[in-house]
Amino acid sequence: MKRWRKRMITASTVMMLAISWTGSHAEASESVIFDSTTIQANGKKFTVQMTTIDLSDPYLRVMPITAESGIGYVESFAGMIERSGAVAGINGTFFDAYEEDESKRHPNGLMIESGSFVRSGENVALGIRTDKTAQIHPLQTKLSFKVKHNNKVYTVNPWGVNTYYGDDADQVVAYTNDFAQQIDRAGGMKVVVEAGRITSMTEEAAAPPENGYVLYIGHSSNNDNHLLPNIHVGDQVEVEALVADSNSKSTESVAEAWESAIGVGPKLVTNGQVDVDFERDGFDDPKITGAANTRSFVGVNGDGRLVMGTLSSATAVDMAQALVELGLVEAMNMDGGSSSALYADGSMKRAPGRLLSNALIVKRYEDPQVQVMVNEHFINENRGFVKQDVTMVPFRSIFERIGADFNWDGEERVLTAKRGTAELTLRPDVSEAIVNGRMIKLEQAPAIVDGHLYIPLRFVGETLGAKVSWDQELYRATLELK
After folding, report:
1. Residues 284 and 303 in one domain
2. Distances from the Cα of 4 to the Cα of 320, 385, 474, angstroms
3. Largest alpha-carbon pair distance within the chain?
4. Is position 120 within any domain?
5. Where is the Phosphodiester glycosidase domain (predicted)?
6. In which band, very low, low, confident or very high, does the pLDDT at 29 lie, cut at 50, 70 and 90?
């Protein structure tokens, strides 16, 4: 039995924050459970294979994944599972499976990963919120760039994120490195946005920054005469990325509210009742609305756990009734037929009949993952983690949000930073830091993981005088700094 508790600590007692998931390793292994069963619905019998996932397990994260070569390409489902190290996975949203050009087999639904848009869209979608709850609602992504030049603000509203609009010269598309490592489309200006500024504008290929964008602006007369004259290298840029929820009538920051999402549909179950409305959800293809075929689904059960699985040959309405019989309170259709795929319990439970554009996976990490908030802002791009009972947090993500000055010397492998009266020096793999000229022993050496420097949370609290609170249920550390 996991024991959940909350406690508040201050900088003077932050040394107590040596935390661990109070569930045992045996319990952790039970956070992803596979089952196969036969269910009767609408007078028919169906075989259901499904995996149930405990979203509260800090070792687990759920996320969409796209083909290794980038959005628009395809890859074997087995390759996606192996490459990502997933412990469970299911095929994802619809894509242009019959497109002859293998670089243009684009997905059709929205995707969000780590609070960032992988692909824009407006769909019925499974969303995992930052409070670790799952819901299935109609969601719409919204992205805008507010460009400031000479005290004037010009707003750029891209048509989409990592989407494909053919050769339309008037298009404006925001690309991230999820799409490709280089954006080399001809016929348009590539505007690189990074760290709140336009860093370059070029007709040549441009690489999307890790946490930034390349805006592709087609050379139509409209864009050349009215858009491009309003943006310049060096301009400040405020990026606004939002998700609108039609059910709750709310619009929230994607980074603050959403961990991940994938848009597919149609909706199957709402509040434990069959809820299939093809017209409402925008579907008229007979393969979806009436034909019986192998089906894939995601849903939420009465305990709030995520369920993903496949069903033997069934119509969408039959599947919805079967999922109600299984006790799901929310459910949504995924791509099906030859795309249906399920991996769980260390083996392929259903192999797809084609290469896939995308999938939804469950990844288990070696160390429990820690959510971090700083001054009421959620750090979604990087998680902290617990290593040998020490909570490690992402340095850059924290210090950027508190307005600290810092510099990384790659050759010397040394980081210097200053905030207020505190000046500090850190080195990866060295368990000592220098603070205002004084040597400080660290409980664990800073570490570089996936190109990011992580430092002990205790050090942040003691050095900066932070007030730190811990939410055991969410596995979240919250720092408040003046």
Report:
1. yes
2. 34, 18, 9
3. 77
4. no
5. 189-362
6. low
471 and 373 in one domain?
A: yes
- Domain termination site, one of 364, 399, 427: 364
CA–CA dist 175, 62 (Å, integer)? 23
**Could you tell me which residues come within 8 angstroms of residue 419 by beta carbon, excluding any fewer than 6 positions away?**
399, 402, 403, 404, 405, 464
Query: DSSP secondary-structure letter at 443?
Result: S
- Other beta carbons within 10 Å of 480: 13
Three-state secondary structure of 155-210:
EECCCEECCCCCCCCCCEEEECCCCCCCECCCCEEEEEEECCEEEEEECCCECCCC
What is the C-alpha to C-alpha distance for residues 303 and 312, in angstroms, rounded to an integer? 25
Taking 80 as the threshold, does the pLDDT of residue 423 lie above it?
A: yes
Residues 200 and 282 in one domain: no
Q: Which residues lie closer than 8 Å to 301 by C-beta, 6 or more apart?
A: 52, 307, 326, 327, 328, 329
DSSP strand pairing (160-161 vs 172-175): parallel
Q: Is the pLDDT of residue 13 over 70?
A: no
The answer to the question of residue 278 being in a domain is yes
- Domain edge (last residue) among 344, 364, 384: 364
Pull the structure tokens for residue 393. 């947090």
| pLDDT band per the 50, 70, 90 thresholds, residue 22 | very low
Single pTM value for the model: 0.92
pLDDT, one tens digit per residue, over 323-374 is 999 999 999 999 999 999 999 999 999 999 999 999 999 999 999 999 999 9
pLDDT in tens, 75-93: 999 999 999 999 999 999 9
Residues 156 and 194 in one domain: yes
- Tell me: do 297 and 237 sit in the same domain: no
Residue 277 has pLDDT above 50, yes or no: yes
For residues 274 and 297, the answer to whether their CB atoms sit within 8 Å is no
Q: Count CB atoms within 10 A of the CB of residue 402.
A: 17
Q: Is residue 256 part of a domain?
A: no
Is residue 69 in some structural domain? yes
Which residues in 175-212 are b (16+ Cβ under 10 Å) and which e? bbbbbbebbebeebbbbbbbeebbbbbeeeebbbeebb
Q: How confident is the model at residue 110, as a pLDDT?
A: 98
Return mean pLDDT, the chain: 92
Domains identified in the chain, total number: 3
- Of 12-16, 144-148, 401-405, 454-458, the poorest mean pLDDT is in 12-16
Provide the residue range defining the domain that includes 276: 26-109+264-364
Please report where in the chains the tokens 């942040």 appear, as a residue: 460
- Burial of 447 by CB count in 10 Å (0-12 exposed, 13-18 middle, 19+ buried)? middle
- Measure the CA–CA gap between 270 and 145, rounded to whole angstroms: 36
Q: pLDDT tens-digit profile of 441-450?
A: 999 999 999 8
- Amino acid (one-letter) located at 245: D
